[in-house]
From TrEMBL:
<feature type="region of interest" description="Disordered">
    <location>
        <begin position="1"/>
        <end position="25"/>
    </location>
</feature>
<comment type="similarity">
    <text>Belongs to the SRR1 family.</text>
</comment>
<dbReference type="GO" id="GO:0005634">
    <property type="term" value="C:nucleus"/>
</dbReference>
<dbReference type="GO" id="GO:0005737">
    <property type="term" value="C:cytoplasm"/>
</dbReference>
<feature type="domain" description="SRR1-like">
    <location>
        <begin position="91"/>
        <end position="251"/>
    </location>
</feature>
<dbReference type="InterPro" id="IPR040044">
    <property type="entry name" value="SRR1L"/>
</dbReference>
<dbReference type="Pfam" id="PF07985">
    <property type="entry name" value="SRR1"/>
</dbReference>
<dbReference type="InterPro" id="IPR012942">
    <property type="entry name" value="SRR1-like"/>
</dbReference>
<protein>
    <recommendedName>
        <fullName>SRR1-like domain-containing protein</fullName>
    </recommendedName>
</protein>
Length: 289
């Protein structure tokens, strides 16, 4: 892991962020000093400007726009090429956005870069900031204030990923636990619901490859099934940001693929329980006795 540590030292030194990042980590650990909202917002905007100059950002932008157009546009495929950019933009403007599991971005460099990328993607798709809902149970009150100051909508309830999609929605789920993805798929497990979703997050194929097959099918059955009919477009990741954006893909669920599946695919869809998963990688909402 020494190489990883070296990469992060490089990232922190950029734009003179080393000292401030260290002080933020101490503040977060002690839980006493209030977060400087203005300074944190500026740091995030600086990170946005930094990512905008990266070559790989253009690949992310193009992949999101193409996925949105292919999955959600009802326009004929042979539409005039001159109309295509405008049509893609209008399609993206129809999207809502939900971001789960971003992490403590005030103290975590990785989470800050992921937040900056989210802001760039919203800008690229011309998705209003207020139409992007964000939640992570680890957010501090100061971080929630930062997100509101940026214009995002902060959710107050831990949905555990169990959000029913009723209109086209872009989910930003960077390095979230498998249970969160599985819950999201379960809640929208139908030939009508799944095509409404575009996910930018960890590769389903990668999850399958890294998990024992028996456990994967038993504990994460919806991901296990979806990996066979979803479409993944792998996203570029530069070596100096490998810990931030590795193993990331745009995942869509084309209607033509789903319509060809047998009806038994949707017949039984019990809510996931995870009784055999001690390391769940998700923070469950508190239940009152």
């Amino acid at each position: 892991m020494s190489d990883t540590g070296g990469e992060w030292q490089v990232a922190r030194r950029r734009k003179g962020a080393s000292r401030s990042s260290k002080s933020l980590q101490v503040s977060a650990a002690c839980g006493q000093e209030p977060l400087d909202v203005g300074k944190t917002v500026k740091r995030i905007r600086d990170t946005v400007s930094e990512l905008r100059c990266e070559d790989f950002w253009h690949d992310w932008k193009e992949q999101l726009l193409v996925a949105a157009s292919a999955s959600l546009s009802k326009s004929p495929a042979d539409k005039d090429a001159e109309d295509q950019p405008e049509r893609i933009t209008k399609t993206c403007q129809q999207l809502e956005c939900v971001c789960y599991g971003l992490g403590p971005f005030a103290s975590c460099v990785s989470a800050r870069y992921q937040l900056a990328m989210l802001l760039l993607l919203l800008e690229a798709g011309q998705i209003p900031l207020k139409d992007c809902s964000v939640y992570d149970p680890v957010f501090s009150s100061g971080e929630r204030d930062v997100l509101r100051d940026l214009g995002l909508t902060v959710l107050s309830e831990n949905e555990e990923g169990k959000r029913l999609v009723e209109k086209p929605t872009f989910f930003y789920l960077m390095h979230c636990g498998k249970a969160l993805y599985n819950n999201l798929l379960w809640k929208n497990w139908s030939a009508r619901g799944l095509p409404l979703m575009i996910i930018i997050g960890n590769s389903f194929t990668g999850m399958r490859e890294r998990t024992i097959e028996k456990e994967f099918k038993r504990d994460y059955s919806y991901i296990s099934k979806a990996v066979d009919f979803s479409v993944e477009r792998k996203l570029a990741c530069p070596s100096h940001l490998i810990d931030v954006f590795n193993d990331t893909a745009v995942i869509t669920f084309p209607s033509n693929s789903l319509n060809g599946l047998p009806q038994s695919t949707w017949a039984e869809s019990p809510e996931p329980q995870y009784q055999h998963s001690p390391d769940l990688e998700i923070i469950l909402k508190e239940t009152r006795s």
